[in-house]
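TICKET #2291
ISSUE: user wants both folds in one file
ATTACHMENT 1:
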Amino acid sequence: MAIRARVRRFLQRPGTVDLAPYRALLAPIERAEAELHERTDAELTEAATAVGADRVALGALAREAARRGIGERPFDVQLLGALAMLDGHVVEMATGEGKTLAAVIAAAGFVARGRSVQVLTVNDYLARRDAEWMEPVYRLLGVTVGWVAESSSATERAAAYRAQVVYGSVNEIGFDTLRDSVRGNPEAVTAEPDVVIIDEADSVLIDEARVPLVLAGAVEQVDADAGRRIAAVVAALRAEVHYEASADGRTVHLTTAGTRTVERDLGEINLYDADNLPTLAAVNVALYAHALLHKDIDYIVRDGRVQLVSDLRGRVAARQRWPDGLQEAVEAKEALPATGSGEVLASITMQALLARYPLVCGMTGTAVAVAEALREFYGLEVAVIPPNLPCIRVDEPDRRHPGRTAKEDALINEIVTTHATGRPVLVGTLDVAESERLARRLRRRGLTFSVLNAKNDAAEAAIIAEAGSHAAVTVSTQMAGRGTDIRLGGSAGERDRVADLGGLYVVASGRYWTSRLDNQLRGRSGRQGDPGGSVIFTSPEDELVEQYGSKDDPADIEHAQRVAEGVQLEIHRNTWRYNKLIEHQRQLVQRHRNELLHSPTPEQVVADTERFPELVETIGLDAVRRSARAISLYTVDRAWADQLAFLGELREGIHLRALGRLDPLDEFHRAAIKAFAPLLDNARARAVKLFDEVPIVAGTLDVESIGVHRPSATWTYVVHDNPAGTELERALQSVSAAFRRKRR
């Protein structure tokens, strides 16, 4: 019994999905494939549309369709990946193993079973590229495919969602979902969620799961002059004299001298007077922007706008912004026009968005490391697919140096020395500023190279195409860490020449907060059995070590990563505990909205009013119905927007309840439920009141005259985590810091 229990526990470990049932299908698939070569394209398509749940026929037809459509015959490992996804797993496949084509086979298999599929990518470029690249395969399999991107028109979006398979970035499909959630007519743009296949699944499902997508409207007037004035006052303050920052770089506060200086420069005010609390809040936010947010690290300025940089991908985080006035403070710091944050009309986290799909599966090169989290949050298991050819890349031990300067000197020397041999080098950096600093030093050493970072992302495809060329040097942020396929020899086709030199050499300037990002960067080299190598340069002065590690521990880098990963996991877990209730309330509101949208008798909300019979007689039942629906939707949306604002304020300060020995989560639930309980009834009552007030103008009810209207403009954005964090996040950081001090 004990042996059986141990075996059972082993088999239940994340990342141990049994591949044997899938391997057993490979030989039958190959035999069936041989019988398809003589069929015409039309016959192939006809057979594909009748596949149903026959996985052998699917594999054979998909192989033949890929061979004809794009000139690539899927490897056995790609079939294994597709079959595992068809069973609802997340598959781990190494870089260059053909995840894109594996997803096509899985998507076609789901369609053959009568399902609809959305393939979520990490950006618009990949969504369009993959849909258009794989369209010939889909067409031969009798499957329609479409894609959506930020630039897609409403007509193009509607057409794309009518396809059996639609590609889109997770953000864009999330934004379409939010827009549909506040629509004023019964017809939705998006398709009903069914099956979702997620590219870079660990990044989307874990790293970004708690990030809220937001739909905003009703542009808020921002006092730009006041913001610029406060920014100017704060810019003149000096560190350690007027303000002090915490060691972990997450909080900053005015000193007594700083407070006196600010009060004087703002007109001899008392910052802590009750009437000046809004000014105090603005000063604190401006101080944070000035002292702790850095240009070309946390954000860049491009096209006259502040654009945030994703620390996960090194790319501009399109339409992402900081909350709570911090965005406007950075804009004032950079002397740019204030954009205003507007009013939140609807919001949903990535995790809640993906929970809408009855079946979730995906693929990534680094899933095992987060397999426990995938199981905990989504009930997903990981299937590890072996490479088609063994990986022969040589991953050297970290090269540790006593300080940041010594590390950077050694890094530059390594690049120059390797370049002299003709071996291509990919230099992975941690942020834009570092990539540009290293570029300046390499330029002084006489090297010719390319730089790939958030400032020149438009040139990404061209730079990546040549990154594996003879003697190429490419300096990149995390942009080159995911979704890029660097081919040895580049466009010149000199694969053998470069392979003889050892293949692509990846040199990293430091470790990321999680080993998964390190491994993604290493994975740019050694694809499909190619030779390659990698090395990471580190020092005790690296930010990761200073924030999470112990300088006295020789294994401080690995320890720091484990602590960082643990902190992020606990923040994710805690955030989801709060968001589950918010998501439940959102679903109740959405259900009520859908009833209003699709009800044949929306006037029932106001049918008991004294005015109702008179209005029906005067302007007709259809006109009354239209107005009743518009008013009812408006009051529900208004109530939900107010609830979201309340929940946001409640969430930020709820952990102070712990000082009174109360459980913050229980207190949040209690307050949130109490506030929500009368929401729908109050919305109905408000609708009745407005209905009684609406005047008749030109033979119809003029609902706009009483303020009932759709927002004149809406826009979407992603709320970047507030760098200061919530009270709990700051507490977790403090615990980490205390642990480090204790170890020292």
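ATTACHMENT 2:
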Amino acid sequence: MRIDKNYYEDVSPEKEALIISIIYLLIGSIWVLRSDKFFFKTIGDIERYTRIQTYKGWIFVLVTTVLIYFLVYDRVKKIRNINKVVHKSMEELSVTTEGLASTQEKLHREKKLTDNIIKNSTLIIFTWDLEGNILSLNPYGEKVTGYKEEEIIGKSWIELFLYDEEKPKVEGLVNYMKSGKSLKNSIGDVWKSKDGKDIELIWTDSPILDEDKEVVKVISIGTDITDQKNLVRRLNVLAYYDTLTGLPNRTLLRNEAVKFIKEAWLNNEKLVFLYIDIDNFKQINDTLGHDAGDELLIHIASILREEKEDIFYLAKLSEDEYGVVLSDIFDEKDIVNRTEKILEKISKPWCTEKHEFIISASIGISVFPDDADDFVSLMKCANMAMYQVKEKGKNGYAFYHEEMGTRIVNNTFLINQVKRAIDEEHFLLQYQSVIDLDTGKLEGVEALLRWHHPERGYIPPMDYIPLIEETGQIFDITSMVLRMAIRQKKVWDDKGYSFFKVAVNISAKSLIKGGLEIEIEKLLQEYGVNPKELVIEITETAFMDNFEASIYTLRRLEDLGVSISLDDFGTGYSSLAKLKSLPIHYVKMDREFIRTMHKNSEEEVVVRTIVELAHNLGLKIVAEGIETKEQKYILMESGCDLGQGYFISKPINPEEFEEKFLADNKKVSTDD
């Protein structure tokens, strides 16, 4: 509460005493000087005047008493009011003082808390003046930057911490701070620490104002996001780069290709995409191990990297596939020259662990915008061309053409129709007889799959078997064929025709998948067929893909009593040592040895050698593809055990086979 200064002056002790004295003096003097003269003139009698004087004295005392009362009352009242005001002011002052003390204590606590926050914060907190000179730096800032606060006070943080290329980014910061506005979550500063490490930060900059609302300094609070940014970079590498070779992966290539194609389109330029697949990589990987396979992939990547002048962009598409983009194309001859150069580089001998290998590749070529005007389609075209090379023997290149697209469409149609064909029983089995060449007696039959499509008619196995092996549908087909063949064998057994064996071809993938022996055992038990009357035919490449897994499955089948036949013998790459370790009972000589064979020919010598080799291994040999009488007699003279082919019988339906081969042999059996 505020008290008027004049109010204090009115109650001055000297002044109050003087006022009362003067009033009393004036009234007393008037009374003394005027009252006697007044009463004497009025009364005139001295005796009476004397009595009046007594009353006058009492009247004077009474009047002066009353006067003094009111004078003192008025002054004391003022003093009392002043005391009240003073007392109230003192109370308010006491409350204000207590509030100030509490505020000071609170400010002290808050200052202590703020100091602790700054001291223990995991944020970089520093202040600087409008010249960029550092005024303070907290302990975490010291830890991150490597500088002590006393080392850098007064130094420019821009010159001390920023790289030259980063400095232009903060040129406008001081001017912005002078406006009195804060700048929050600004990203992009890369600081250099005392030991030369990079620190990436997010900043919040706030100006500090004085009483006149003028900016005097700036407080900057920085969050160290170095670890987060490094994590993002690592994730980016995992998402967009091949971890083995460091090359861009398929995803990054597709993203970047959008830019390539847009630019080429605007400039009316051509681009070429090469789809490169390393031939026989799986065999190398399985034979030498995955470490050697990785070495090869790194070797191929380094070769392609060396072609900087010819290759515009290089990426790794999958395990053993690479994508190359060529630009600045002159003509087709230029494309051929650059592709052949890449093939030549890849085909140079590659050495690892004292072994030397000749590597080859199949390359498919597509051209923008001739073949496609978007990258996904461009890559599909090159991929189709690459598979064309594979089909023709590998180690070469091929340009995409429209007929390839038609073939792919046809393949897609077939793949989609396989499940329908299984469900609607469009597949059937035909049987080709296998006879003893010496006696002509029926030894067995081979079950051969046939597909009669309701719209397209007969579809040859080679048109769809490779496709369904790639899609995995081969497993369903294998199960279907096994069931159909074993069920048909049961039908013949019930009719008394249990003297011959039924052979079923099994793909490499079905053999190494696992569980084949369990499936066959269940089917044999379900239909009550003797395991000894079932033959499983495999090719050499089937067990070469995974030798150990193949051996395990074949031995389990042998334990059941099932016979194993090695198909296409003589055309694979298996060694005699591996053949001896296989649980096989028959080998089938490939038809290529027989097709051109005639008396006293080189082929006859080869056939005799194969027959002798099989017999030395304790195996029976079957010749397939017999088409002439001469071929049959040469095989008989060579000692070949069994034979099949169109000369003996083409594949026929079960009913026809039963009528032609089984009726006369009814209930005839062979010794086990």
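RESOLUTION: both attachments delivered.
EXTRA DETAIL ON ATTACHMENT 2: Residues 666-672 have pLDDT under 50 and may be disordered.
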